[in-house]
Amino acid sequence: MNKGGDIIIIEDDPDDQLLIEQAFQELGYANKRIYFPDGLEALAYLNSETPLPFIILSDINLPRLDGIQLRRRLRENASLNLKCIPYLFFTTALNQDVVIEAYSTSAQGFFVKPSDFNEIKQTLKSIVEYWKRCAAPNNFKS
């Protein structure tokens, strides 16, 4: 895990993108945020020669390739899977079946996107702080 890497955010709603970005700006994390409107664009980016991202925050309901399908594709890609990029769902889609399906993809978290800005900010802070403290297999040099 590259704790100084980019935070990949896959969100098709421009208003939600704006709120998420405002929250990150107020939190003051140095990690660059890169936004994608759908899973296909994010997949193309992640398959390119880019620096290892820190975490991926994905909505579930996305055009062209939804968050669940994207997660499955990333797990099937051996080289991306070995990079141990934390994949978390950050979505308004909430019911038991969706949560079960999300965790069946080996996602590392499922967070409900709050409607209140301060709660969005607090949720994002909790996510980032947790992963900044977490060790991953690729944190060790051979």
From TrEMBL:
<dbReference type="InterPro" id="IPR011006">
    <property type="entry name" value="CheY-like_superfamily"/>
</dbReference>
<dbReference type="GO" id="GO:0000160">
    <property type="term" value="P:phosphorelay signal transduction system"/>
</dbReference>
<keyword id="KW-0597">Phosphoprotein</keyword>
<feature type="modified residue" description="4-aspartylphosphate">
    <location>
        <position position="59"/>
    </location>
</feature>
<dbReference type="InterPro" id="IPR052893">
    <property type="entry name" value="TCS_response_regulator"/>
</dbReference>
<protein>
    <submittedName>
        <fullName>Response regulator</fullName>
    </submittedName>
</protein>
<dbReference type="InterPro" id="IPR001789">
    <property type="entry name" value="Sig_transdc_resp-reg_receiver"/>
</dbReference>
<feature type="domain" description="Response regulatory">
    <location>
        <begin position="6"/>
        <end position="128"/>
    </location>
</feature>
<dbReference type="Pfam" id="PF00072">
    <property type="entry name" value="Response_reg"/>
</dbReference>
